[in-house]
Amino acid sequence: MKRLTLSSLLALSLLAGCSSTDEIVPDIPPSELYQEAQVSLNEGSWNTAIERLEALDSRYPFGAYSEQVQLDLIYVYYKNDDLALGEATIDRFMRMNPGHPEMDWVLYMRGLTNMAQDRSFLHDLLNVDRSDRDPEPSRRAFSDFRRLLDRYPNSEYAADAQKRMVALKNRLADYELATADFYVRREAWIAVINRCQELQRDFPDTLAAKKSLPLMLKAYEELKLDVPAERTRELIQLNES
């Protein structure tokens, strides 16, 4: 008996996946398939909705439902926590439909999708502090919401985007503070000062900026820099009053 190679196994798995999809999604007219997808969406049956919408997207990429199918996929991927697929679909839609009338919603969903990638269900469940985790998804989300506000200031999604930007700003500031604290524990005093200065410059109205002042003071004291240390003590007193 011949041994199956890795490429053979991959080919078999792909064929199995295709055949199972064909069994799940019947070969019916696009209007009926779209109606089935809408029923699943309304019922919150995300997996079934995804199967129907993906079938429409692959079988009729330039059909009458093409744009709406992609918009529905953006939403259902987000609801089903398929965030990477959602982001890829958003980027494709923005590239293919730059002037679409619902572009404000697409940008809003891009922000939500990126924001959702900066979390962990287990961490949320256990109330674990995640401030030291790389906040790159939050940076992207902040940028998405800012683009939304710049391009569509009167959008119905603008107010919510603005509120989310406040939360994201605090998330990014907390990461900078956690990084400064990391350098304190390693007695990298120049790095502490640089990080605290960046935090105070970029996020001056956050609690993290206030908390960074004692870290910066300690760094100045360790380096025997009396003048900036005194200025930092004055800033601490001002923030305590």
UniProtKB/TrEMBL annotation:
Main location per the UniProt record: membrane
Bilayer topology: Lipid-anchor
One Pfam family per UniProt: YfiO
GO biological process entries: Gram-negative-bacterium-type cell outer membrane assembly; protein insertion into membrane
Outer membrane lipoprotein BamD-like domain sequence ranges: 27-233
Subcellular location: Cell outer membrane
Signal peptide bounds: 1-21
Gene Ontology, cellular component aspect: Bam protein complex
PROSITE patterns (alphabetical): PROKAR_LIPOPROTEIN (PS51257)
Keyword terms, alphabetized: Cell outer membrane, Lipoprotein, Membrane, Palmitate, Signal
CDD domains for this protein: BamD
Gene3D superfamilies reported in the protein's UniProt record: Tetratricopeptide repeat domain
Subunit structure: Part of the Bam complex.
PANTHER family linked: OUTER MEMBRANE PROTEIN ASSEMBLY FACTOR BAMD, SOLUBLE LYTIC MUREIN TRANSGLYCOSYLASE-RELATED
Family: Belongs to the BamD family.
Record-linked HAMAP family: OM_assembly_BamD (MF_00922)
Function recorded in the entry: Part of the outer membrane protein assembly complex, which is involved in assembly and insertion of beta-barrel proteins into the outer membrane.
Name used for this protein in its record: Outer membrane protein assembly factor BamD
Organism whose genome encodes this protein: Enterovibrio norvegicus DSM 15893
Lineage, opening ranks: Bacteria, Pseudomonadati, Pseudomonadota, Gammaproteobacteria, Vibrionales
